[in-house]
Amino acid sequence: MRPAHITAVIEQEFSSTQKGYHTPVMLWGPPGVGKSQIVAQVAENHDVAIVDIRLSQMEPSDLRGIPFKNEQKVEWAIPAMLPDVAVHGEAGILFIDEITSAPPSVSAAAYQLILDRRLGEYRVPGHWAIVAAGNRQGDRGVTYSMPAPLANRFSHYEVDVNLDDWAAWAYHHDIDERVIGFLRFRPDLLFDFNPEHNPVAFPSPRSWEFAHRALHKFGDQPELLPGGLEACVGKAAGVELFAFIQSLENLPDIDAIARGESKESPDEIDLQYAVATALVTRAIRSGNDVTLLGNILDYANVFKQREMGVMLVSDLHRAVGAELFAVPQFAGWAEKIGDILVY
Predict the structure, then answer these.
(1) What is the C-alpha to C-alpha distance for residues 296 and 283, in angstroms, rounded to an integer?
(2) CATH placement of domain 3-158
(3) N or C: which end of the chain has fewer CB within 10 A?
C-alpha cells in the first residue's frame, strides 16, 4: 500500500480511538521506506505525543516493569516510558518499532499491552492508538518470525514506495530540488535494495534524505561531494546523481521562466525534469503567488512531451493544493491536455 494510503489508515485509526473502534496496526516493509516517518507525521498532524518503544533493545522486565515488595504483596513498578496522561497527554500514538527484531521472550511480554491495552495494573489511555512496525524476514535485518498469537493481535499493512508520495513529502520538507529532479528522471532508484547482495549503502527514501544533507555539506567541496553522495545511496546511484548535478549547468534561466519571460525548454529529458522540479520549488517558496503559478501553467505547455507538463502540474497541485484551480491559466492548460487526462 502506498504511503499516502498508509497515512490515511493511521489517521483513521487514531481518530477511531475516540469512538472505540481502534485496532492495533502492524506496518511491514523493508528498511528505509519511511514506516516510522509516516507514524510521526500523523502524530505531528494532530499535535499529539508519540511514545516510541524499541522492543529490540529491551529485556522482558523492561516492558513488564520491576517487582517490588509492598508489605506482604509483590507489586510491579510501571515503566515511565509507557504513555501517561499526566506526562504525555490524553491522546497520542504508542509506536512499537522494530517489533520483529525483538526476541520471542520480549515480544511475548507485549501481547497483553497490544490486545488488551494493559500490563498488569497499567492501562494504555483510551485515546491512544497503538502502531507497530518491523522488517520482513527476507530484508536481511535481524528479524524473528512473528508468533501467531502476536500477529493475530494486529491489522497488517505492507508499506510500498511511491514516487509521487515521496515527491510531495520532499517538496514540503525542503529536500533539495536537484534530488527530486534526479528521482523524477530515475524513478527506479527511489528504492533499490537487493537483500541477496547485503549492501551497506543503498537507495531508499531515507537515504535520499541523507543525500540531500550531503549536498548541503559538501556542495562547495567538489573533491568530497561524489564520495559523500555514494556514502549515502551507494556507489552506482551516487555516481548518477553527481553526473546529473553536473549537467544542470546547461539549464535554461529558471528565474526568467518563473517571470514568464522565457519559453525555452531543454531537449535533454533529464534537464526537463530538473526544470519542472525547480519551478515547483519556486512556487512553494513564493507562498502560492498567483502570477508565478500562472507563468508555470503557461510553461507547462512548452514541453515537447506533453506528459512532462502533466507531471509538472500534478506535482504543483500536490504542493500548493486546490488554490491552483483558481489560477486563470489553469482552465486553458487543462483544455490543451484534456485528451491525455481522458486517455
Answers:
(1) 8
(2) 3.40.50.300
(3) C
